[in-house]
Amino acid sequence: MHIDRRERNFIIASIVLMFVFAVFILVSSFVMKIQVPQAPVPLGRVNPNTVATPGVSPWGDPVEERLRQVGPNQYEVYILGQAWSYQPAQITIPKGATVTFYVTSKDVIHGFDLQGTNINMMIIPGQISTLTATFDTPGEYKFICNEYCGIGHQTMFGTLVVEP
Amino acid sequence: MKDKYKVPEGTIALLVIFILLIIILWGNVFLTLLSRGATG
Amino acid sequence: MFKTSNKLAAWNIGLGMAALFIGGLFGPLQKLEHAGINLYTSLQNLGIASYYQGLTLHAVLNAIVWTTFFIIGFFTFVIPHSLKRELTNPKLNIAAFYIMVVGLVMTAVPILLNLATVLFTFYTPLMASPFFYIGLTIFVVGSWVAGWGFFATYITWRKEHPGQPVPFLAFGAVITMALWQIATLGVAVELLVFVIPWSLGWIEGTDPQMNRTLLWFFGHPLVYFWLLPAYLSWYGMVPKQVGGKLFSEPMARLVFWLFLVLSVPVGIHHQFLDPGIPQRWKLLQFGFTFALFVPSLLTAFNVIASLEIGGRNRGGTGLLGWIRALPWDDPSFTAQNLAMILFAFGGISGLANASYNMNLALHNTTWIPGHFHLTVGSAVTLTFFGIAYWLVPKLANKPLWNRKLALAQAWTWFIGMILMSNGLHALGLIFQAPRRSMLGAAPYASGEWQPLLIESLVGGLILGVSGLLFYANMIGTVTQKKQAPAPIEMPVAEPYRNDPSPAWLHTWRPWLITAAVLILVSYGPVLTYLFANMELTSPGFKLW
């Protein structure tokens, strides 16, 4: 098959460009650890119909107990998404804290997008979504539902407060 | 009218601009991603 | 010779345009709401209960009904004219039309009654009326029947012309329908096996992660179902319209084969942020998605080179001066060329979406509708308008009502789309503003968003005006008394070179086998994993 020399060079350049971009992506995810949520999660699966029941899972615990310190400057927070709020809706941590978020839903698919960070996850009933971030800058960061979940979707958000 | 086979110079010029645009715009998003920190 | 197929083509295209008109009305309403002007409360008197019901109508009518009917109508015209023989079994294609209409009505009624405000992706466990899902299934089956009618015509032609390569236009159309047949298997399984029985109460629960994955098996090749007809025009018609030739017909055929093979094994790039899918399958499909970008880059080279031939044939000189020599007074060319320029940007934002963890910055922000209004909303829709500017006169046997109006329509679409999509892209990338949301009523919305929301609004309003210009011209064309002074011919591009193209560009088996293998490799294990871990626990929710 005849391929014009310049066309062939363009094809080669395009493929090389894709490889270069792919290398940047792989470095940013595996070396710089900007990673996407994935399965399987050590905590496993949950049943959305019972996940909010007290005693069944961490998401059934009282709201005050959802944020847990697990080390010096290390925290875990168990957030339950539901139409149309997060529970807890406000989380306060000290500056420099590293927080692992564990989020699930007791009803429909929601989103979880924490402003100013790369924490952006689909929250799917039955599944646990988890990512971790370190908060070096004090301030208020909203986490917003970015997947349609019904008539009140646009009101669904929470606030992460990082104290100085 | 028989076309003589011609080199598509203008095409190559436009594609060079397009590739540069891809690199600049994709790169901009990449830097935004990096600026928001690690998740793992 | 083509009376039946021409008439059927006209019906399909007309119905598609009617759908786009209604769906399009919601666009400006959405942009107004985002900027703080909520007209939905007044619309409640007209039966539109909410922004989200409007959004469901907007997407279903624009992204499913308009596109599918136009594409099938376009192919109903193109295939017989390209093969120079009428459809083998016109009754099959006529039946397909009626089946699709039944499906459309069965889907539309629940949406209009606010029983299916689930948006066009209908993610479970939001649960719509069973008629919504059954209607969609019937609609898809109708489109299959249309495809079978095209395949039958193609097979008959091949028997009548043994050893001859299929004319390019018919070839591209048949590949597109073959891709559609394969792609729709995902959503068919989702609906028939899981969602319809669940919505009827026959199964108590469903697994939303599984359903999403089956949907996106379909959802990515869906966009190539939309795009390939536009590429078909750009490769196979526009070069003729500009007085040029198709720079490389073999490469154009190769690109269509590559899309057949690569469009399906990539759907998980819509699910990079899903919690239930193991990383290795996300990475594998990321690789395939990057490969899938290459045929579009090839299209850029081939199409631009073909235009350059035309520009230089028309007397253009200099490195870029030939651009000015192109037929900018022809609205069919202008609309399609502007569509190509918009697509260049849409392709770039799509490449960003494909880039695995880059989704963390982009997913479900307004960047996403920014992206797809440049692709399905421009590359596809504006190209279809450009095709309509010669095809509708051809089918009506009347001249285009107002050429200047058509040019104004193309340019206003271009400007409106630049403003709207720029606003949406920036809002999503810089501020992480969410999509699919009544932003005007969102407590987390920031004043900083307002300038970009206004930019988007201005763009959206200009697009609304542009749409009205299109419909005015279409109605004017078909209702005028004037007849076309001379018969309008389908533009068919000639190849620039007459080299024989290799046999492997004309045989199906190796390509179909490759497509099947790639799908098995990319989806087999992950679907097995999801099936093994499936928990049918979610009941239905009606949250609107």
| Fraction of helical residues of chain A | 10-25%
Number of helices of chain C: 17
Cα shape of chain A: elongated
Would you state the CATH class of the largest domain in chain A?
Mainly Beta
Structural class of chain C: mainly alpha
* Number of structurally distinct domains of chain C: 3
CATH architecture heading of the largest domain in chain A: Sandwich
By CATH, the superfamily of the largest domain in chain A comes out as Cupredoxins -  blue copper proteins
CATH topology of the largest domain in chain A: the name is: Immunoglobulin-like
Number of domains of chain A: 2
Reconstruct the topology from this structure:
The complex is a heterotrimer of chains A (164), B (40) and C (544).
Chain A lengths: L4 H27 L35 E5 L2 E9 L2 E3 L2 E5 L2 E9 L4 E5 L5 E4 L5 E7 L3 E6 L12 E7 L1
Parallel strand pairs in A: 2-5, 4-10
Antiparallel strand pairs in A: 1-2, 2-3, 5-8, 6-7, 6-9, 9-10
Chain B lengths: L8 H27 L5
Chain C lengths: L2 H32 L5 H4 L7 H33 L6 H23 L17 H31 L7 H32 L8 H29 L1 H4 L7 H14 L16 H35 L8 H4 L5 H24 L4 H4 L4 H30 L6 H29 L18 H30 L29 H24 L12
Label this structure with key terms.
heterotrimer, A: 164 residues, Immunoglobulin-like, 1 helix, B: mainly alpha
Brief sketch in words of this structure:
The complex is a heterotrimer of chains A (164), B (40) and C (544). Chain B is mainly α and 40 residues long.
Structural write-up:
Chain A has one helix and ten strands, in the order H-E-E-E-E-E-E-E-E-E-E. Chain A has 164 residues and is of the alpha+beta class. Chain A has two domains: 1-34; 58-163, Cupredoxins -  blue copper proteins (Immunoglobulin-like), CATH 2.60.40.420. The radius of gyration of chain A is 20 Å and the shape is elongated. Chain B has one helix and no strands. Chain B is rod-shaped, with a radius of gyration of 19 Å. Chain C is mainly alpha-helical and 544 residues long. In chain C, 70% of the residues lie in helices and 0% in strands. Chain C has 17 helices and no strands. The mean pLDDT of chain C is 97. The interface between A and B is medium-sized, with 21 and 17 residues.
